[in-house]
Every structure is written in C-alpha cells, then in structure tokens.
Amino acid sequence: MPRPTNLTVDGRVVAVLTATGGDFPWQHGTYEPGPDVALVASAFVDLPDGRRDLDLDRLAAAGHDLGSVRLDDGDHLHALVVAPDGSAAWRSGFEPLEP
Questions:
Q1: Mean pLDDT computed over 40-58
Q2: Do residues 97 and 76 make contact, with C-beta atoms less than 8 angstroms apart?
Q3: Residues 5/17, Cβ–Cβ less than 8 Å
Q4: For the CA atoms of 54, 56, 60, 64, what is the dihedral angle to 10 degrees?
Q5: What are 5's strand-pairing partners?
Q6: How many CB atoms lie within 10 A of CB 66?
Q7: Torsions phi, psi of 28, nearest 5?
Q8: How many C-beta atoms lie closer than 10 Å to residue 8's C-beta?
Q9: Which residues pair with 77 in a beta bridge?
Q10: What are 22's strand-pairing partners?
Q11: What pLDDT sits at residue 18?
Q12: Cα separation of 10 and 1, whole Å?
C-alpha cells in the first residue's frame, strides 16, 4: 500500500509525495502541495510539456541549504518533476546535491 512521505525544506513541509511505483533511481507517484509550499513556489520551473521541475539551484540561490531538502526517511531530494494532473517523479539519495 502506498505511504505518503513529507518533503521538507528547512524543516517545513512543502509537499507530500506518495510513491506508487518506480524505475530505479526514479520513484513515481503523486504530489500534493504541503502547508509551506510557498517557501519553494518560486523555485519551480515550467517545462515545455506542461510539467514543473523543482530547481534545486534556485533553492540554493534563495538561501536554502540543500542539506535540508529531505524526505521523511532521511534521504535528500535530488530531483522532483510534477505533472499538471498531480502525478510526479522524484529521485533521492543519502547525500545532498552540491549547489
């Protein structure tokens, strides 16, 4: 059964991701904005196909420590792409990405 996981930035919940499958290293599932989504709203980049990419370089440029961009299991987010229908794909790992 899929289990939701919080995506946090600086300890604040910016999204809830629910994995429903995947193809390593990508997880696939759903995206729901969290209570603090405004913290990262300006870091999303619109892609030509209508999806949005959470640009971690933009987050870092805005003063956020990429080490604080984490999932509930402690992994660091490496990429997040969200489709207009709320489906999403993301990658994560043990170490944060370098800005």
A1: 97
A2: yes
A3: yes
A4: 60
A5: 17
A6: 19
A7: -120, 145
A8: 19
A9: 92
A10: 27
A11: 97
A12: 29
Residue type, 17: L
Counting beta carbons within 10 angstroms of the beta carbon of residue 7, is it exposed (0 to 12), middle (13 to 18) or buried (19 or more)? buried
Q: Is 62 left (phi over 0), alpha (psi -120 to 50) or beta?
A: alpha
**pTM, whole model, 2 decimals?**
0.94
The token pair that represents 42 in the structure block? 């300006």
- At residue 81, φ and ψ (nearest 5 deg) are -125, 130
Query: Quick one: CA dihedral 59, 67, 95, 86, positive or negative?
Result: negative
Predicted local confidence at residue 26, as pLDDT: 96
Amino acid at 9: V
Q: Hey, what are 31's tokens?
A: 């995206």
- Going by C-alpha positions, the residue among 71, 74, 80, 90 that lies closest to residue 25 is 90
Rounded Cα gap, residues 25 and 93, in angstroms: 9
- Alpha-carbon gap, residue 70 to 34, rounded angstroms: 14
